[in-house]
């Protein structure tokens, strides 16, 4: 994004980022990812942090400019996940490598209701 983009364009971009990151979080929660060095839980929490950052910047822009908050701001933020969470354990080599770093991998993931309203 260019520095001369106005606050409305910035809000639009951040809103799109929230939607994209949430879809990515939901996909990883269900299917996992292929990161060879980090568990799915770590990647889910990173994606969650991206959503929180976008919402924080939106809040700053809206409070400074008086613009209304976009609807995407109110999309529920996914819950924090155990860093050892794995969506599936079928990736044998990846699971073996992750277990070498210590800690037990888990399949427990908090429920996420995308319809529940939240601010963060």
Describe this entry's structure for a reader.
- The protein is 50% helix and 0% strand.
- The protein has three helices and no strands.
- Helix 1 runs antiparallel to helix 2.
- The protein is elongated and about 50 Å long.
- The model has no long low-confidence stretch (mean pLDDT 88).
What are the defining features of this structure?
120 residues, elongated, mainly alpha
The major β-sheet equals: none
Amount of beta strand: under 5%
Unreliable parts: none
Terminal CA distance: 24 Å
Would you report the number of β strands?
A: 0
Rounded mean pLDDT is 88
Report the order of strands and helices: HHH
Any idea what the radius of gyration is?
17 Å
Q: Give the % helix.
A: 40-55%
Globally, the shape reads elongated
SS class: mainly alpha
Number of helices: 3
Task: Describe, in short, the structure shown.
By secondary structure, this protein is mainly α. The chain is 50% helix and 0% strand.
Q: Which helices and strands appear, and what pairs or packs with what?
A:
Layout: H1 7-31, H2 40-65, H3 92-100
Helix pairs in contact: 1-2
